[in-house]
Task: structure prediction
Amino acid sequence: MLKLTQTFDIQKDVISSILAKEETQISKECAGVGDPRILNVERDGGVVYHWRGAAGTTRIGKYDPHTKQNKLLFTFDKQVCICGCSLNKEETLLAVSLVQSSRGDERFKPVSKFLTLLIEIHPVNNTRVLKAVDCRVKVQFLYPHSSRNAVLESHLLLAAEDGSVDQFHIPLVKQDGCRVVIQNPERLSRDRVVEEACWLQWDSGPQRLFYLSGREKPVVKCVQFFPDRNFETVFELPLELPSNLFTSVRFVNFGHDHIQEQEEEGPKLVVFTDRTGTMCVCYSHPMKGFKENTYTIAFVHRGFSKTFTIALEHTTMPAHAPNLHPVFIHLGYYIVVYLAGHFLHLINCRQQDLLCHSLFLSGADAHVEGLGAGSVVASVWGRRVLDVQAGRIYEGDLSHDFLLQLLSPARPEAQCLAALHCMLVHLGPDQHLEDKIIEWISENVMSFDAFDPIQEFILASLYRICYQQSLSLDVLLPYSSVFEKKKLPVALTALPGVKCTPELLAQPVIKGKARNLQGYWEELQWIIERSRYFEAVPNPRYRTSQIRSDWTKLQASLNSEKKKSSNDLRNLEENTKKVMLTVDTWRLDKRVVPLFQEEDLPQRALVGLMVDKLREHLNGHLPRLGKKKIDMLALNYVAKLLELVRHMLESVWLKLNLGPTVVCLKEQGSQKDWAMFHMMCRILEALQGLCLPLPPGYSTLLTVLGMRCLPRHTFLQYVDHGFLQLTEAFVSRLMTDLDNSDCNEELKFSVLKRLPESLKQRACQLWDHPVSSACISREYVRALLEKHTKTKSSLQLDKDKTRFQPEFLPLAYLASVLSDMENQAPDPFQEQENVDASFVEETALKQTLIKLGLEDK
Result:
């Protein structure tokens, strides 16, 4: 599942180029390449490496990943053992930490002396001894952000194995206009950064130093370095770590000492940070046997930790067992915990409510190509992964194809859900991948019991889109539909072979008031404070089903006669208009799915209601964002929802290669029509389950497809149960597209019977049929006579009669009244379709004879 894209290979990128070229330029006696090793990866991505020549030399070079060029930096005239190396940003200074040996053999067994040198590499090779001690020393140049082209000062960290860290300030000066040398190499100022630590980690990207102080009560601290040569301890976090976690000082990301890294086999600790404000402290526990493996992820930004105990499949290990401590790799939204040959755990850094949103793989599924059980692997800053022994650097990511393979009904449902979320949230937006997911959904809409894939697609995609707009929304917006269930399925609450123990963390301390925290530390502080607030707030996450009761009341209001005078409805309509302005559903020139352009009042009202409720929820919990931004977030959320539904329809429509004949009611539906109808039914069911709105015209298209695909009696049952809606656009097509054959006439009567009175009258005017015309004429006469009564014309009725009943009037009397009224109105039928005076008289005569029993119906 973990896809490693190789970005550097010391054999291919170094030996095959610069080293091969040098062999042709020097004598055969000096030719030879041996033991090439990566020493460090600097902030700019440059790889510092060394190799040994046959003539007894040790050379240091740099590979530039941008130009793909190699550069020779320095040459020792003898073979030396390097345990630390770093190059400054301007490539003028080289810091090297050496292990001095008592004999000159090529194995270089370590002795008691370690020497740290500062070397001018261009243009004068002056050397300055910075430290000569009995313990190992790591070196690292700072790479501050600076707009100046030429920086005349470098800063170097020296981290010793006794736990101390010093920062040297090295002033530079130009000589003869081009040479850059140390201004006063004998008197370099330095600051003590750390007094004592048992673990140190350097993060080159943000220029931070994490360290662990105190062996009895360990505290993780962080020193932030600034461009103006200053530094400050900005973070402290007490941790409950396993006893004797480290027997010696450990270094993380301080270059790579191959001898030391091969000797170290024990628990690992690493801190991962991300620009989004997350911080995770990951560490493995000392081994107590070969039956299980234990590690802890402390989610600092969430205020708790989780300790995972994994049951290993192989309970007996060979005598020369590999290191059974897992590797931690940071991928931003996820952390990979990998133990070769056993398991791969993809842990969600931001959503830790349920285990099912993290992906656990074991056996053959957990194999990572390129990383064997014997590999010494280090996670460099960012997503880079270093295989120390092989001399390769990879860019880590997740495999789309493998995740798609996990979306199978044969897989555990928790795996499918985790893989789906990983693709939608972590890997998106990717149009091709999204189309693949929609295709999978259309083929497996009824395959899962624990979750609805359509609901997960909608909510997870919306979460990703809005989360990118404002990171503060990750605790407030829904990201999964499983929380809408009254009782969570067992398949999603536990993972086989994985035991999880959560614990609360001590509150971290974020300092830095003098500098007014900015960037990452400001975001982390805000997230921590917000987490404390949400601990006291029940159900802070917005649930779409919460508006169901309001939606029920709104539907009742829509069916009432006073709906037009309601201020609330007018406000909701304003919300809907703003949403529709950002939705491209109305652009007919680019429309693929024939969503009929109509005034779908119920769905428009639901759109406005959702905007209103979401805005209210965000204002209640995030007033910090401001009213204007919250309004924009709420409108965009609902607009993106409608676009996602439309995108699903378009993807399936194009896959099935449906044409314009789909909306014709004269033809029977094909197998493709049935597939589209089935998919639309599932989308309707999924969104109704979450009380989410549909794009305008969705109900009409679904009913048209239902008319084409379903038997007539089944279609009417779908209508009676409210699954299909008899919209005005559909009824218009029904009346105009179908002829008046017996079966069609029966269908039209059945539909008319199910229509509300207002829609029934409009439908009758579209149907060229005697019964329809009779209905039109009766309604016309009734309205005409009632209007005549209100105007108190010369027509005098019997005082005992309290109401006109035109269908029982004698023909002569009716004709007389109509004649009088026609004389008063020059064109009384101009607003009525399919009506004329002679037709009304004939109809009235027909109805009168029927009522009097003088003629059969």
